[in-house]
Amino acid sequence: MKCPYCGSDNTRVIDSRPADDNASIRRRRLCDDCNKRFTTYEKVETIPLIVIKKDMGREQYDRTKIEKGILSACHKRPVSAMEITKLVDEVETEIFSREEREIPSIEIGAIVMERLRDTDPVAYVRFASVYREFKDVNTFMNELKKMMLDKK
């Protein structure tokens, strides 16, 4: 592993433990050349996943896109960073457990919405308004009514 500070590959692991998500290993490393410490994470490599976009274009799966969508939906909401990370991990686990090489972005959005509905209703509506591309207030109100009926 190369040192991010000096570029040397003369580094060693000084501590290793499971990360918070229990799906990866957190390793503290020390560079023997510059004596700086840094952290790396080791994860199981999964099969490459291709996302089929709404316009039928294809791109490689990118976890950060899900994170950004959830973060903006939860902006100024009482949802902790740990809850958001857990939510993203759950979505990712569900996606990869299907063991398919391609997945439509519509399915990913539906999974995210399902998880957000249980986490924070306002974040759910925010995400749904972008994901479902609400064109007017009536569409937005219909979604709110549907959500209220589901709660009963």
Topology:
Elements: E1 11-18, E2 24-31, E3 37-43, E4 50-52, E5 58-60, H1 63-73, H2 81-97, E6 102-104, H3 105-119, H4 121-131, H5 137-151
Parallel strand pairs: 4-6
Antiparallel strand pairs: 1-2, 2-3, 4-5
Quick rundown:
It contains 5 helices and 6 strands; from the N terminus they run E-E-E-E-E-H-H-E-H-H-H.
What assembly state would you assign to the polypeptide chains in this entry?
single chain
Rounded to an integer in angstroms, the radius of gyration calculated over CA atoms is 20 Å
State the total count of DSSP E strands.
6
Poorly predicted runs of 5 or more residues: none
Relative helix content: 40-55%
Helix count? 5
Task: Estimate what percentage of residues fall within beta strands.
Answer: 15-25%
Give the overall silhouette.
elongated
- N- to C-terminal distance: 54 Å
Structural class: alpha+beta
> What is the string of SSEs from the N terminus onward?
EEEEEHHEHHH
Major pleated sheet:
3 strands, antiparallel
Q: How many domains make up the 3D coordinates? A: 2
Taking all residues together, what is the mean pLDDT?
A: 87
Q: How do the strands line up in the largest sheet?
A: 1-2-3
Please, could you describe this protein's structure?
Helix 2 packs antiparallel against helix 3 (105-119). The chain folds into 2 domains: 11-43; 50-151. The protein contains 5 helices and 6 strands, in the order E-E-E-E-E-H-H-E-H-H-H. Helices cover 45% and strands 21% of the residues. It has 152 residues and is an alpha+beta fold. It has helices spanning 63-73, 81-97, 105-119, 121-131, 137-151; strands at 11-18, 24-31, 37-43, 50-52, 58-60, 102-104. The model has no long low-confidence stretch (mean pLDDT 87). Strand 1 (11-18) and strand 2 form a beta hairpin. The chain has a 3-stranded antiparallel beta sheet, with no helix packed on it. The protein has a 3-stranded mixed beta sheet with strand order 5-4-6.
